[in-house]
Design goal:
Helix content is about 95%, strand content about 0%. By secondary structure, the chain is mainly α. It has one domain. It starts with a helix and ends with a helix.
Length: about 80
């Protein structure tokens, strides 16, 4: 199963890169611009995703502690 997940992740990355290249190439007519964006954009998204996950986890922890506190206060 792990191999299938890695293969799916790899193929999704390839699709993402191909879409980024194609969109920029069609908009600009430049293969160089398409190639640069196809490499830079996924890298930027990877960094953004990392920070998104950190914020999301902090929000979940805050929500859990708030809900837990409200539940305890209501039962007192």
């Amino acid at each position: 199963m792990g191999d299938a997940v890695m293969l799916k992740t790899f193929t999704f990355a390839l699709v993402h890169i191909m879409v980024a290249f194609t969109v920029v190439y069609l908009l600009t007519g430049s293969a160089l611009a398409g190639g640069i964006v196809a490499l830079v954009e996924p890298a930027c998204n990877t960094v953004a995703y990392h920070f998104h996950e950190k914020v999301w986890e902090a929000w979940r922890r805050h929500r859990r502690s708030t809900v837990g506190y409200a539940t305890q206060a209501a039962s007192v």
